[in-house]
Amino acid sequence: MPDTTRSCSFLLEPWLELHDLVEKHPHLRRVLFDPVTGLPTAPLLFPRIESLLEERGEISLLCLNVIKYSKIEEIYGWEVFDEVMREVAASLERITGFELRDSDIVAELMISGNSLVVLLSPPRTTAGMQREALDLLARRIESHVREDLSAVLDPSLYPKFGCYAGAATVRRDDSVRLERLVHMALETALADSDMRECTDGECRKRRLEQIIQAGDVRTFVHPIYRLDDLEIIGYEALSRGPEASEFERPDKLFKVAYDSDLVLKLERLCRHRAFESAVDLPAGRLLFVNIEPEAVSDPELRDIMMSSVVAESNMAPSQIVLEITERTAVEDFGAFRATLEYLRALGFRIAIDDGGAGYGSMQCIAEVHPEWLKIDLSLVRDIDTDDVRRALVGTIATFAERTGVKLIAEGIERPEQLAVLREIGVEYGQGFLFCRPQVPFPADADVTPDL
Predict the structure, then answer these.
(1) Are 4-201 and 215-447 in the same CATH fold?
(2) What is the model's pTM?
(3) Which residues pair with 161 in a beta bridge?
(4) DSSP secondary structure of 296-326
């Protein structure tokens, strides 16, 4: 659970000063509006809260927390998360006059943050809002925002976000400063939303356990092309959970697995499914199989790999490239290298995923000495228009040439990107420009692009 006490305490001291500062210099109010959503931030609610407390004695509020389940900014760019926050604000505006009253006030907890605050207008017939009614309203608001996000976000993006609403009540206490009362209420509301996320986490863990027990994981494949002639040299095996479920996408599948200590069990199932599908792998092609860093330390990995390959796929180890993902950092490179060297001795080859995406991947390259390196899609996305990305990929290509590493560019979606990658000298690539992941194994006519 996030440490909301520490985060709110961090905000408290500036709030204590902001209220007085804005009172003395009203023109500063304009800098306390979030530029993305256009909403005011929490310190600007204090005058309204003070007035309501004097009039009613208490006031209730909701805190809506938007959770990211993956590296959104690193993979898709900061614009995507900004758009999500705009959509959340728009969703709250759409239900004003319906679930929310016209007199309710929506604000952001802080500029460019991920939490929104709804200051509720007083009940019409009672002195205060009952806790049951407040919790019910929070659940309805949460549900409406989720439905709106599912309708406007790309289906591949929606599962990467969570949305949880917490509730609290501020009660008048003349012995406590207003800002501190608001701080304590927001702390309570944030803790409430975190508890909701943790409860959902337990439910997700049970669902994932059911998926693993039932073996309900599917394998898709995504071709990898030699870029100069667009010849297919191999396929990446991609795991998918149950269709049309929150676990369909692998990032959510493995996020829950890591949170629930189920990585090794899930990894074994995904690997098993990949090798089952590889029975029909076309002759002369490679199969890239994703493997989590944590799974490399699996004491059963050696036996699992050999039994799976020999008994089920009829492939030689030389056709298998173990693609190390970077969802978590490698903690013990000594043991990590020892296992990989054993697998190399059996004939397997090693690839590093997300090359150039961060310090962790660069350290992994230096420690592991992979035969293959995948250039992260965050570097490929704007390579035709961004000189910095072009220079970075060029540097990686020079490194690969000097060390004998084969490069694969991920996420190629436009002909302009392909042209730049060819010019730089990147030899291999994959992406939606060529085709989307398909059920194994598609005929070449279905995946050979005409470019």
Answers:
(1) no
(2) 0.65
(3) 68
(4) HT-TTHHHHHHHHIIIII---GGGEEEEE--
CATH class of 215-447: alpha beta
Query: Domain-by-domain residue ranges, the chain?
Result: 4-201, 215-447
DSSP 127: S
Kindly give, in sequence order, each residue whose CB lies less than 8 Å from that of residue 176, ignoring residues fewer than 6 positions away: none
Sequence length of the chain is 451
* pLDDT digit string (tens) for the chain, length 451 residues: 444 434 444 444 455 455 566 566 666 556 678 888 989 888 888 888 888 888 888 889 999 999 876 666 655 677 888 899 999 999 999 999 888 988 899 998 887 788 999 999 877 555 567 888 899 999 999 999 999 998 988 776 777 788 999 999 988 898 988 888 888 888 899 889 888 887 887 888 999 999 999 999 999 999 999 999 999 999 999 999 998 787 888 888 888 888 888 988 998 899 889 888 888 888 889 999 988 877 776 766 666 666 655 556 677 888 899 998 765 556 677 777 888 888 888 888 999 987 655 445 677 788 888 999 999 888 998 999 999 999 999 999 999 999 999 999 999 999 999 999 999 999 999 999 999 999 888 777 677 787 7
Tell me how far apart the alpha carbons of residues 230 and 235 are, in angstroms, rounded to a whole number. Answer: 13
**Backbone Cα Rg of the chain:** 26
**3/435 Cα distance (integer angstroms):** 43
Largest CA distance in the chain: 79
CA 218 to CA 241: how far, in whole Å?
6
Could you say which architecture CATH assigns to the domain 4-201? 2-Layer Sandwich (3.30)
